[in-house]
Amino acid sequence: MIAGLNIAKQSKQTIVGLAQKRFASDLIVSQKTGRTLIKTGSGGRSSSNGHVITVFGCTGFLGRYLINRLAREGAHVIVPYRDEDDMRHLKIMGDLGKIIPMEIHLRNKDSLEAAIRHSDTVYNLLGRDYETKNFSFADVHVEASGVLAELAQKHDIDRFIQMSAMNADIDSPSRFLSTKAEGENLVRSIIPSATIVRPSFMYGQEDRFLARLAMSRGLSVRINGGNTKVRPVNVSDVATAMHQMLDGNNTVGETFELVGDTEYTYKQLLDFIKETTNLDIGDVNVPKPIASLVAKAMNLLPWQTLGADEIERMMIDDKLTGAKTFEDLNIERSSLEVTGIQYLRRFRTNLYNDEPLKKGVVGKKKTFHTSYL
């Protein structure tokens, strides 16, 4: 997509009284649009790598990790937001003037176009875990993705990177996964060179995966007997992969399935959480119909809860389809069993907070480290 120009000349540019050498390697030209990107500075957040990047869905879980990687290389990052409070923490991730907030609304096409018109790359991380009275899965995953792709095509965007989900399938019983697949197909029909990213359940400091399982404390509810197989992936690894896709020619028009290095059942994950947190978590298996009814009732509460469609997803095993993976990006994945304690330690009581994860007896409680490799 982007190729360096092999020019031997060097030039000097005076900036604020200082002479700065500019090499041919500082100049890259897009093969698709002919747009010229010029790097300045010696590298880092106070320099510029020439990119102007819009990250939709930047206020979500993955967004902050991706923006951190983009901004520390000097990219100008446009941060579309609906609620100003949700994006305040993103401002400090780049140098002064590099993080550019812009208020948008998904049903206001002019606001979306304003956030795209000056960019060379668009990341679409928009997604919903549950439906609301204002936005359905189709509104966000399909309609919004199509509008963004059309606008990107209109303004000759070099790269369009679409966030999907592991197990996305038109025929999936999960409406979340079926609309994710519809969104993939729509984006590809508009921009054949778009890159599709399908991560598994992501875990990290602010996740809704490990945290939800650990927060159950006294009692954990199992769906499908805890036998569903998943490959949870570290959110930092996914952000690193999506960052590499910015300039990676081998990612154009490709689909990537980003999963962790180990397959677990939910039962094994609960056992790991019990061991890591030193909490006595009981468990009970709840039939899917009952769990779905309870989830629908809980959605009447004014705060976010487990949705009925999430119950459906908890019944579906992670299955690789032969798409590209971390190995194609030369990224070594983090291990949950090595890094998990970083995210789960906060759920320990003060009695066990500083205890290492090891075999033996911790206080009056036995803990056994079980490897699922």
UniProtKB/TrEMBL annotation:
GO cellular component: mitochondrion
Pfam families: Epimerase (PF01370)
NAD-dependent epimerase/dehydratase domain mapped to chain residues: 53-254
Origin: domain of life: Eukaryota
InterPro entries (UniProt xref): ComplexI_NDUFA9_subunit (IPR051207), Epimerase_deHydtase (IPR001509), NAD(P)-bd_dom_sf (IPR036291)
SUPFAM superfamilies: NAD(P)-binding Rossmann-fold domains
Any GO MF annotation of the entry: protein-containing complex binding
Protein name: NAD-dependent epimerase/dehydratase domain-containing protein
